[in-house]
Amino acid sequence: MNTSYAGTRRVLAGSPFNTPQVDVGPGEAFAIDDRVTHDRFGLGKVVNVEGQAAVHADFGHGIVRRITLPSSKLTKL
User: Fold this and answer.
1) Beta bridge partners of 75
2) Measured between alpha carbons, how far is 7 from 51 in angstroms, rounded to an integer?
3) All residues at 6 or more sequence positions from 58 whose CB lies less than 8 Å from its CB, including other chains
């Protein structure tokens, strides 16, 4: 008795898992001295940019955080 299925499963039209794949374009471009906001750390200022990979932002009181890009929590103001 073989219970495994080798074929693909049929997806129902009303299924919540049947969502189209959205192509995410390039993220925001950050530069030094840009003002940013982060969902967890609050308001800050960009102090260093690592190309399209990450930014270093100062969120006050000497707290500098490295945030990898793209980040849904980081927004340029």
Assistant:
1) 37
2) 43
3) 44, 45, 47, 64
Q: Report how far residue 53's alpha carbon sits from residue 55's, in angstroms, rounded to the nearest whole number.
A: 7
**Cα–Cα distance for residue pair 57/65, rounded to 1 Å:** 5
C-alpha to C-alpha distance for 25 and 55, rounded to whole angstroms: 18
Contacts 24+ apart (CB under 8 A), 16-22: none
Q: How many helices (H) and strands (E) does the chain have?
A: 0, 5
Q: How confident is the model at residue 63 (pLDDT cuts 50, 70, 90)?
A: confident
pTM: 0.63
